[in-house]
Amino acid sequence: MADNNPFPGENNTGHIWDDNLRELDNPAPRWWMIAFWASILWVIGYAILYPMIPGLSGFTKGVMGWTQIGEYKEGLDEVEMVRGEFEAKLKGMTAKEILADEGLSSYTVASAKVLFGDNCAACHGAGGQGGPGYPVIADDDWLYGGSVEVLEQTIANGRMGVMPSHAKLLSDEEVDKLATAIMSGNPTAEPLFMSKACFACHGPDGKGMQALGSANLTDSVWRFAEEDQLASVKLTIKHGVNDTSDPMSRNAVMPKFGDRLSKDEIKKLAVYVYKLGGGQ
Ligand code: HEC
Ligand code: HEC
Predict the structure, then answer these.
(1) What's the pLDDT score for residue 274?
(2) 146 Cβ below 6 A of ligand 2
(3) Of 19, 46, 139, 263, which alpha carbon lies 20 to 30 A from 182's?
(4) For residue 278, what pLDDT is reported?
């Protein structure tokens, strides 16, 4: 073929088709060759420094001693160091002092989120929004008080507000009258409120007493039902709350966590709930 090459002097391979379509043997462009050799050098360098070439009993380890798990652990150590610093500080501080420090309270809220999810969300909802039978703890309306000290007590010791059953003490008509007055937001306008001693627990103004956890009856915040509040209020008046002598009584028990969670965990949760609901 080379003998009768119709394009002598040209750097072709001698492969010619259709009379003049031929394969040239030019060198690859310079930039391409540089990139080619550089990538080979890079691979050699990489193989020396990092774990890479598989063998029968594992793989080459590389002179840097890099491992994936090592890098992960280093990252973890960094997190632990930051955490450790915060945790050490928290131990010696009261919940109130934590709240006064913005950085510490953000850390506490972040780290108590899991505790809240594990221990509280089943009853109070993931965001503390409550539900029928379980009070909202993400607003500033409190049965027992929303100062961070009271929240710590509530979580550590539990709560169980008691209202006696009035099934035998009130006629249906009297229950209706009381319920109607309460629903209108003005319970004290109903004389039965005084004569049947509701005021003894709910206060002469009907606004409740936090020492007893007796609900504020003037604020239209209800905690036992989502629908038909009038019927729900009637049921509560008639059968009371946590009164074991009446099987129809409302059941409202906040379990105590003092024997399940550490003091520090309870402190964190109090800060968390305080930040959810806020205020007194
Ligand atoms: C088994 C259900 C249940 C669980 C779990 C539970 N609670 Fe409660 N919680 C209640 C009930 C019911 C009440 C109302 C008690 C009452 O009316 O006397 C309550 C009341 C409260 C109150 C008082 C609200 C107020 O208005 O004063 C706070 C604060 C509170 N819970 C926080 C928590 C936290 C924090 C956790 C998790 C550590 C938790 N609860 C876990 C059922 C629960
Ligand atoms: C011994 C104290 C006590 C007496 C007396 C009492 N209550 Fe209560 N009442 C409570 C407590 C405590 C609660 C709140 C229970 C809870 O939320 O855990 C409550 C809750 C209620 C509720 C429900 C509020 C809500 O948010 O759903 C109504 C309504 C109510 N009481 C009306 C009355 C009326 C009317 C009388 C008088 C006939 C009365 N109570 C007498 C202690 C009392």
Answers:
(1) 94
(2) no
(3) 139
(4) 61
**pLDDT for residue 279:** 54
Q: Are residues 114 and 226 in the same domain?
A: no
Closest ligand, as measured to the CA of 222: 2
- What residues are designated binding site for heme c? 120, 123-124, 163, 198, 201-202, 254
Residues of the chain with pLDDT under 50: 1, 280
Q: Hey, which bits of the chain come out as E strands? A: 12-17, 21-24, 54-55, 58-59
Same domain, 181 and 140: no
CA of 134 to the centre of ligand 1 (A): 7
> Tell me, what's the pLDDT at 280?
47
Angstrom CA distances, 147 to 99, 141, 193, 238, 272, stand at: 11, 11, 29, 32, 12
Provide the domain limits for residue 213. 172-239
Q: Are residue 87 and residue 226 in the same domain, yes or no?
A: no
First to last CA, the chain: 101
Per DSSP, the three-state class of 16 is: strand
Say which residue the tokens 């610093």 belong to: 85
In a domain, 164, yes or no: no
Cα(55)–Cα(98) distance, integer angstroms:
55
pLDDT tens profile 11-29: 888 888 888 898 888 888 9
234 close to 179: Cβ distance less than 8 angstroms? yes
Q: Is residue 251 part of a domain?
A: no
Angle between helices 172-183 and 229-239 (to 10 degrees): 130
- For the whole prediction, is pTM greater than 0.85? no
User: Is 165 a pocket residue for ligand 2 (Cβ < 6 Å)?
Assistant: no
Name the domain count of the chain. 2
